[in-house]
Amino acid sequence: MLLNSTIDGFENIQHQDYYSLEKIINKLTTLYRLYGYHQISTPTFETYDLYVGEDSIPSDDLFKLVNHQGKVLVLKPDATLPVTRMAAMNHPNADEVIKFAYQTNIYRNFSSPEMIKKEITQIGIEYFGNDSPECDGEVIGLAILSLLENGVKDVHIDLGHVGFINYLFEELALSSFEREMLFQYIENKNIDDIACFLKPLDLSAEAKAIIIKLPSLYGEPKAVLKEMKTLCLNENMAGVVEKIAEIYCHLEVMGLASYVSFDLGFTNQMNYYTDINFKGYINNWGEPVISGGRYNNLSEKFGIPRPACGFAIDLMKVIDYMEQENLLPMDTQKNHVIFYGYDDKSAAYDLANNLRAKGEITEVFMIKSDWGYHVISIRENPLYKNAEIYFLSQGKLCIVENDQYISLEAITFESEVN
């Protein structure tokens, strides 16, 4: 007897959570459609070759298998790469503007012991062919609205830019090892470690002072922008300041700027980000529930140079929060359960079909025991917590209310279809 045949890292979604998940997906799909995003889907399996060289996803983190032709396949570990491939294949004109929305599952065989989940349910958007601050602002704005539209008010976006630090390190001609170490220290905001690491490097005092200030480039956007301007050593760094200032202005126009803070010291696991990157948090909830950014070079992998920006939401993390805060949409529609005697089968099915035609959930069962047993069985089953119970026997119909059997001429109701 298989009492426990589940696989670690994969979870079942129970009926109530599935109802909530579907409602949230429908609401978000409608939101994205209103902004012009077209719903698409990509395969569950991808070729292993698609991820060769993408060191942001270690090979050991991929679920691999070999098909009957000997080709190595993987369970899709990322949504952006396949969507970018689809855009390149179906829209070869690099000047086209393309807006896609998707809902999918991705699979990662995380080697880290604290990363337990192997299957992640995502919904997101990808905006191709537009390199403007308005595009970035729309994408970030929709990330915020995705949570607000579902009743989540404690939304917080950390907005960074991978270029600001990269342009600084290029100016200072730092080695790849020096960059990697400094990125780690900056992201962890280890100022003492940064100072110790910089001490033996052949850099000017001004350059070292600028690097030490990088971890403090977070917080209220206008204050951070003012500080950033004082640290620019070249035109590229100044261009970053101008770009994110324009994005922030666009978010002000959308009425969403208050949800955004700047953090120029964080990086993103996905190394294809070339410009802005951001993480979305529900305050006091720990890990980010949204991850996104701009990836202007990724489409070139498929032969079409095209800028792009997008984000993905971890839906089950959002549902966990909404459940804790009693924000989940609940299935409150009543269902009608009709028990019938053998000679009343035809009448019971006619009655059920009439109710279903009016949008009412209706189930029918033959009476096989005493009525009280059937009532108790239904009441004890959580799947029937909203059920109205009826008995049709010898041509007579009754409803169960407060353990009493009340005669009815017909079933009347106010429609409760959601």
TrEMBL record:
Gene Ontology terms for molecular function: catalytic activity, acting on a protein; glycosyltransferase activity; histidine-tRNA ligase activity
Sequence positions that bind L-histidine: D78, A79, T80, R108, Q122, E126, Y272, Y273
Localisation: Cytoplasm
Pfam families given in the database record: tRNA-synt_His
Domain of life according to the entry: Bacteria
Biological-process GO terms, alphabetical: histidyl-tRNA aminoacylation; L-histidine biosynthetic process
InterPro entries (UniProt xref): aa-tRNA-synth_II/BPL/LPL, HisRS-like_core, HisRS/HisZ, HisZ
A cellular-component GO term for this protein: cytoplasm
Domain Class II Histidinyl-tRNA synthetase (HisRS)-like catalytic core as annotated: residue spans: 9-318
Pathway info: Amino-acid biosynthesis; L-histidine biosynthesis; L-histidine from 5-phospho-alpha-D-ribose 1-diphosphate: step 1/9
Additional observations: This function is generally fulfilled by the C-terminal part of HisG, which is missing in some bacteria such as this one.
Protein family according to the UniProt entry: Belongs to the class-II aminoacyl-tRNA synthetase family. HisZ subfamily.
Protein name stated in the entry: ATP phosphoribosyltransferase regulatory subunit
Organism of derivation: Acetobacterium bakii
